[in-house]
Structure formats: C-alpha cells, structure tokens
Description:
The protein is 66% helix and 3% strand. It is mainly alpha-helical. It has a domain at 215-353: Serine Threonine Protein Phosphatase 5, Tetratricopeptide repeat. It has a three-stranded antiparallel sheet with strand order 3-5-4. A two-stranded parallel sheet has the order 1-2. It starts with 8 loop residues before the first helix and ends with a helix.
Amino acid sequence: MSTASKKSKKDANGSNKPEPDEKAEIIDPIIVENHPGFNMQRYINQFVGNTRIKRLLWIGQHARGDLQIQAFRQAIDETKRGINYPMYEDCVRYAVESIGGALGDDYLLDNQWVDTIRRHGHAEFTRLDAVLIEAKRIGEREPIRLAFVAVADHQMLQGDFQKALSNYMETKDYGSTQAHKLDTSLNIIKAAIALGAFTHIKGQANRVQSIISNNTRSKSQISAALGLYYLKNANFSGAANQFLNCTVDLETSYNHIISVKDIGIYGSFCALAKFTRRQLKGMLNSDVWKKFLELVPIWKKIMLDFVNSSYDLCFDKLERQKNNLLLDMHISPHFFQLEKLIRDRAFQQYFQPFKSVKIPSMAKALNMEVPDVERYLVQLIADNKVQGRIDSHNKILFSRVADQRSATYQDSLNLGNRYVRDVKSLLMRMSLIKSDFVVRPAPKPRGGMGMMSHIGMRPDDDKKSMDTQQL
C-alpha cells in the first residue's frame, strides 16, 4: 500500500466543503472568430509545463477557423512530449468534439501510447514510493521531505494534481529551514493552481510573509499568485495591487504559472477598472511598473489615453486588444465586466464637470454610437451612477443637481430650530436650580450613627424619647 499522501481529505482540500472559487465559472461561451492578427506561437512560447497546454486548450475551445485547428494540434503534440496521459486524452476528446475530422488522422487518440505511458508512469511511481517508504523507516527528516517532493513532482507530471497537492502538504512536517518552508508553500501554490483550488494560495502566502520580505523574486512569485487568486474571485482592486507588488526580476522563473507580460496586462486592465486617476498616474510614473509597460507598450498608451480623457482613443485600442484578451484563460471570464467598469468610469468622469452635455458629443468622445450612448446612460442613471436626466428629443443630458438655494434655506431653518431648543433647555435648567428643585445624592452615613442615621433619627432624639417614656 502506498505511503504517500495519508493526510485527511480536509487538509488536502482546505476544507470539507469546496470554496466558491474552486468551482468552474458559469459564463456564456466566448467565441473568437478568425483572428489573423494573433501570433499564437509567440504567445504560447512565454509558458512551460501544464500552463502551456491549458492555454493552448483554451484557445482551441474558444477560437474558430485555422487558429482553432492549430491550437488543438499543438496541444496534442505538447502532451505527447510528456507523461500527462489524462490531459492528452482530454485534448483529443475536446478536439474531436469541436472540429471532428478536420483534426486529421495523425491526431486521433493513440491508445498504444496511452498504455505505454501509463505503465512507465506506474513503474516510476512504484520506485519513488519505495524510496519514500525506506526514508520513513530510517526516520531522517530531510530524506523524507525530498522523497515526498519527488513523488509529488512525478504526480504533477502525470496530471494527478490532487495527490500531488496532498504530498506537497506532507512536506510541511519535515522542513527544518525557512528555505524549506518557502519551497513547500510555492509547491502547494503550484499544485493548487493546476488543480483550480485557488483558496490555498492566500493561506500559503500568509504563511511565508515573514520569509519573503527580503527575497525579491519569491515575493514577486507569491504576489503574482495572489493576483491570480483575487482575479479569479473578481476582486479587481486586490488583483491590481498584488500585480503592482511584482518586479520584472521574476523573468522566466514563474512561466509555469504566469508570464511577466501577463502581469503587465492583468495589472493595467484591473487598475483601469478600479483605480482613481491619481493612482493611475502613480502607476505610470512608477519606476517598477514602467518596466512592465515597456514589455506591453500598448497598455501604456491605453492608460495614458484614459488618464488624459482621450476616451475615444482608449476604447479604440482596447477594442483592438479584445480578441487577444478573450483568448487568455485568466482574463477572458472577466473581460466584459472589466470593460464595463472602465466605460462606467469614463462616462462619469466625462460628464462630471458639466451641467449639460450633448449626447452626440459624448458619443464621439467615447467612440460609441448615439443610440448606444443613450441606452448606456439610461442604465447608469437607473443604477444611480450618474446624476442626470435625458432630453431624448434634443439628445441632451442634463445634470440633476440639488437646488442649492432651497438647501441653504433649509439648513438655516434647521440651525434656528436647534438654537431655540437649546435656549429653552438652558432656561428650564436655570429655573429648576433657582427653585432648589434639584435631585441630590443621599448623604453618606457618618461613623457611630448606625441604623438610626439610616432611618433618619439622631442620637439626641432617641434619648429624649426614652426620657419622656420614663416620666
């Protein structure tokens, strides 16, 4: 019986109940029709490992035409270079379901290859498991930790991400240095992202905060992973802040998760949706973020256009990036939400200085058609994001500003009423004090008076009462 991964299911999964962000997002199918400007080879060469194959598979599922066929074929070729036979089977199945015979006979399921890789993989696992059993028998911590890591690494290569995650978690009990603790957390994050269990990222990031403070590259890796966690949960402000904590020193060290260019794109896109104009200017002037923008210069232009209120240019460039973003497996599920947030802010900022604006002028400034602008304004007004009213006949948007004169009169009246109330209260208090109609605390009993003092009698009164009785 295998000794690897004997921790409880609760420890491996983070909790008995799956967290919301571990579930597959339910979204409308996103299809990109014929995107000749997309250089898939240059895009995919940024990544390695399972991320590379998953991104190819995403493109194959969401593109159409030659790009779809190319993506599926390359995904199948990539999987056959490794030992992840379950992912190979998935790639072939998705390809056949999507494009059928267009894939070609050379890319149909190779059962012989699957059986061979499965047998070789099982033999290698048996060998690694024997090493782990022997290390446990000897009882030295470091050999046990290394044996667990070797088993988990093999399971990652074979696509068994759940068991790999469990075995990486086992190494927490055998690490003896801070470097071991950091490696364990990074391995857990790697397996969690591959599995789609993003909830583990935040816990592991908190676990190593004190360790990574002086390690720039590890800090960037953790921040990039946290950025993906927040992006997955549609917390765009949190995602932008985490991506801003990264540095280009990351280079290719995290390409099995995310590329440096992706950090520049994701951080800029999320910031446009949530940051103020002052914060965006700070990003553009940041020496660290400038290096990311040098890798993706189009996003520097988009941000500059937005900051300078050149919304037509901004949205025109954003529209040209749309298909590229829809073919990205992390940003695609949130693209339309992010785009709407940016457009909402553009409408608000454009209209804010004016009392009235001609809708055709606004349409031109925002690179939209007049009917679309009018419909958009109706929704913004209904959501209370724009304070205005629309003259549909003359195509004018009027600012709905409160009557300042009436508001000033009302404030003055309220102030006068408060003054009268306060004066009446003072006069009543003075009258009560003058009439000695005041509630005073009971006097404290003096020493030696005992119970008589308590009932209101003095010692002399008691003595006089006794003399009277004797007479």
